Amino acid sequence: MSYDYDLFTIGAGSGGVRAARIAAQTGAKVAIAEEFRTGGTCVIRGCVPKKFMVYASEFRKSFKDAAGFGYSIDNVSYDHAAFIKSLGAEVERLSGIYAKNLGGAGVELLKERAEIVDAHTVKLVESGREITAQRILVAVGGTPFVPDDFEGREHVITSDDIFEIEELPKSIVIAGGGYIAVEFAHIFAGLGVETHLVYRGTPVLRGFDEEVREVVQEGLIAAGVNVHTKAKFSKVEKVDAEFRYSVTLDNGSVLNADRVVGALGRVPHTKGLGLENAGVELAPNGSIKVDEWSKTNVDSIWAVGDVTDRVNLTPVAIREGHAFADTEFGGKAHHFDHDKISTAVFTQPPVGTVGLSEEQAREEYGEIDIYKSRFKPMKNALSGDQSRVLMKIIVRASDQVVLGCHIVGPDAPEIIQAVGIAVKMNATKQDFDNTCALHPSLAEELVTMRNKFVPE
Ligand code: NDP
């Protein structure tokens, strides 16, 4: 049986683009369909524009800190519309590079939505064209989820919209306590916006090490975010008075805001994709079930990235896509190991973490040793910033292998990426101790913690 293509990829985001490029470089005939813009969530409305917003919002604090170093910075002004314009241009440039790289590798980019017709056929929705492929890769990612358990859901915007808003709101209410909510709370507070964070639990960042969570919540409050915990939206109304919206919480509080943002998680973008036509098995949350090779229950269909709801991070999708292409087209069978992936939360200061939290390690291994340090970074001695760094190492008592490392402090993502190598290699606490400190740095603390933490 001959097919139009060796590989048809649906979704030109991080995972899909990598898989398509690598497959095409082996000589396979590859097409990729994208209904929105090339680059996917990460480039267009996720990690990349978010990080630029973090940079933009950090300046205000830097100007304040600079006073301790002899600077006087007067008449600082900020033009949000100008920033959004520069941001948009950079995102456009990056999206273009993705498209160019696809072309360079010989991948055919089809700029329309594709849906599955059967195990070897997709249909382009706009043109109606049907295409056959020996293998189909689904890499359609996720989409923001806003529950309908409160009134006025239509007034709530999500991370999909936030990078386009040219007018800086005077005040903002953000719902959620995960990655996106805490990052945006810091971004807007840093930009001088009156910011409210509404989270149903406490502290924020469920799933992270408990101490990290406490420190991040303290950091939000110190940054001027009004943190409303154990609270949910019950009603969002458009008022168009001094503020555009009024948000009523289930504890009776009423908050006024120019913008209301929901950062309440993401769901796999599988609705209407036609997966049922090919008999692809889904989990109850709509994610595609795959094995360690990213293969679905259908022999000709694979899926990578957030749509599979394994570890929903860009570099993971890239590695899954690469492994799929190497295995299926490159004659180099391997699959991606999802253990000990470093991750960061771009709060201000940020979080960097790899491996198990204290709670997870205790549950899994029982006996563990904890090494930790909370200290004032050198810069703060002059800047007047009162925040302190948290560094924590979790060690398995039986063999001294480092199971996890958690940092909240300046440059934590940069530090944890390097520490992640050691942790992935199963370094022991002794290996950390054998490493000479680099002075003066924050990271030197990781190799100079000698005393186990003993609870009082
Ligand atoms: P998360 O899953 O991280 O957080 C969702 C938050 O919404 C949680 O605090 C959750 O509460 C709360 N929530 C869920 N449902 C409801 C509800 N019905 N009512 C009230 N609160 C609710 O999702 P995000 O949207 O923050 O981020 C999505 C994903 O994007 C992340 O999981 C991550 O994979 C990725 N991401 C990664 C980033 C990074 O690497 N730096 C940055 C941004 C996103 P509870 O805790 O109680 O469940």
Descriptive overview:
The mean pLDDT is 97. It is globular, with a radius of gyration of 24 Å. 43% of the residues are buried. Helices cover 31% and strands 23% of the residues. Strands 1, 2, 3, 4, 5, 6 and 16 form a 7-stranded mixed β-sheet that branches. A 5-stranded antiparallel β-sheet has the order 17-18-21-20-19, sandwiched between helices. It folds into 3 domains: 5-144 and 267-328, FAD/NAD(P)-binding domain (3-Layer(bba) Sandwich); 153-264, FAD/NAD(P)-binding domain (3-Layer(bba) Sandwich), CATH 3.50.50.60; 343-447, Enolase-like, domain 1. A hairpin with a 5-residue loop joins β5 (121-124) and β6. It is built from 13 helices and 21 strands. The N and C termini lie far apart (71 Å). The protein has helices spanning 14-25, 40-45, 47-66, 80-105, 159-162, 179-190, 210-222, 275-278, 314-328, 358-365, 380-383, 412-424, 429-434; strands at 5-10, 30-33, 108-110, 114-118, 121-124, 130-138, 142-144, 171-175, 194-198, 226-228, 233-238, 245-249, 254-257, 259-262, 266-268, 301-303, 343-345, 351-355, 368-375, 389-396, 402-408. α1 (14-25) packs parallel to α9 and α3 crosses α6. With 456 residues, it is an alpha/beta fold. NADPH dihydro-nicotinamide-adenine-dinucleotide phosphate binds at residues 147, 149, 176-181, 183, 199-201, 206, 232, 263-266, 312-313, 343-346.
Please name the fourth-level CATH homologous superfamily of the largest domain: FAD/NAD(P)-binding domain
What does the radius of gyration come to? 24 Å
Tally of strands: 21
Please outline the major beta sheet. Answer: 7 strands, mixed
The chain-level mean pLDDT equals 97
Structural class: alpha/beta
Bound molecules: NADPH dihydro-nicotinamide-adenine-dinucleotide phosphate
What share of the residues does DSSP label as strand, in percent?
A: 15-25%
> Per CATH, what is the topology of the largest domain?
FAD/NAD(P)-binding domain
Low-confidence stretches: none
